[in-house]
What we know:
two-stranded antiparallel sheet; two-stranded antiparallel ribbon; disordered N terminus; 71% helix; 11 helices; 340 residues; globular
Amino acid sequence: MQKFDPIGGTRPPYVPQPDPTQGEKKRLHRFANLFGAAGLVYFAVNLAGSFVFSFLLDLVYNITGTYLFGSSQNNYYVLNILVYLTSFLASFGTYALLLKMPLRVALPLRPVDGVNTLLSIPATFCFAVVGSMITSILASLISITGFEPVNPEMPIPQTVTGYLLYFFLLVILPPVIEEIAFRGVLMQSLRRYGDGFALLVSAIMFGLFHLNLIQGPYAFLLGLWMGYLVLRTGSLRITMVLHGCINLSAGILTIVMDGADEQTLMLINAIYIMFWLSVGAICLVTLLVRNRAAGLALHPARTWLSGGQKLGTYFGSPVILLLLAVIAFFMLQNFRRIGW
């Protein structure tokens, strides 16, 4: 029944309008729960794969009396390669398929400027050094409790084949697979909610998936930087190169510093920090100045939700909360009592 408006005559009855944020929250919950499920698949496949592949390699040894890949250490590297690949492909591949992401969206590979790439390498090492310093401060604060975070490390290779497998597992696989997973599939799927939100979530997850507080803060900071580069360039190529450089440096330093005395370690570490902080800062400023004409800001969000609402909705989703609980469980395994 129409009501009489003394100014404009009769008017239609009031019809309440739907809250536009509710639909957006519902869709964001779906994205979060799908990724949470994919993350749980990652850990399930990781545990199952470790058992199955380890069983098969041991079975071959028990039957033949020889290691399939020449030595127990080589078998260890191959086992980690197989588990790593199956875990990431099963989880992030499933996430992309469920969202029906086109390959060109999940895997942006535009050509990148060579000079920008070269300038980005020292700049990335600068961020890595800052991340390491933050990690050291956090570790010192945590040590007050009587515990310290640890980072599980791969054994130093002893043979030529071992070195090849070691660097393949360290320098080739993570830069390709993790960039596709976090800066590709995950970050690109969330860009409809704003580049800043997509960048932050992907960096948080990248840090958490390292499962320890030695690499976590460091990985989060690098995740922000490398994610920003992907958003600005539209390509994973540049971050695959940067990720590979960081991991290569870490692998070489681990081998070179193995068995060195404390004084030598402190000297190498000081030189490393001073060099990359100074050179990296210069290259970072040069990179920003060189590209300022193209604009340095990220694309804004086209959504009714505020930043806090998006983060609350995403990380408050039930399956994401379950995934975070699983990650916390594994993180707690990477602590040890000081003095033990």
